[in-house]
Design a protein that fits this description.
The protein is an alpha+beta fold. Helices cover 52% and strands 19% of the residues. The protein has a 4-stranded antiparallel β-sheet with strand order 1-2-3-4, covered by helices on one side. It comes from Candidatus Giovannonibacteria bacterium RIFCSPLOWO2_01_FULL_45_34. Keywords: Membrane, Transmembrane, Transmembrane helix.
């Protein structure tokens, strides 16, 4: 017992200084936490339960909104092949060699991702102007295509 008492008397000062330093570190740590809590609860409710419940409600709402956005994107991706997004345009002179017209006639091909769509041909002359439309399915038509229409479809692909 005397050895323990002797040891404590000899090192008591060191032990007390150690505890004091440890306490000082705890005070600094607690002040840092207090500062962090002030930032977290700045301008709002400081009830931790209310804050956590609000965060949970927001998480659920954002999760539902994300699911809805994913559904909308999937629906839009499904509709993309239906949209006419590929365009081919060829201007030409159907009356070349006669000195009539110029490059005022054109063929416009409007196709989707599946090469379905329409080809619109416009023939322009001094005394007449005609417009023709032909349906396109998989890049082909049930009607005979002119060289310009075939070229417009190729440009649209």
């Amino acid at each position: 017992m005397s050895q323990i008492t002797n040891f404590l008397n000899q090192y008591l000062l060191y032990v007390l200084v150690g505890f004091f330093i440890l306490d000082a570190l705890f005070v600094v740590w607690i002040l840092g936490l207090k500062k962090s809590f002030k930032k977290i609860f700045k301008g709002g409710d400081t009830d931790m339960e209310k804050v956590l419940l609000e965060l949970r409600r927001n998480e659920i709402a954002f999760g539902e909104a994300l699911k809805e956005a994913i559904k909308r994107v999937e629906r839009l991706e499904g509709e993309l092949p239906k949209d006419l997004r590929r365009v081919g345009l060829v201007r030409y002179n159907p009356f070349s060699g006669t000195g009539v017209g110029g490059d005022q006639s054109f063929v416009l091909a409007l196709l989707n991702e599946n090469n379905d769509g329409v080809v619109i041909s416009s023939l322009y002359g001094r005394e007449m102007s005609r417009v023709y439309a032909k349906l396109i399915k998989n890049g082909k038509s049930t009607y005979q295509l002119t060289a310009e229409e075939t070229q417009a479809i190729a440009e649209a692909k």
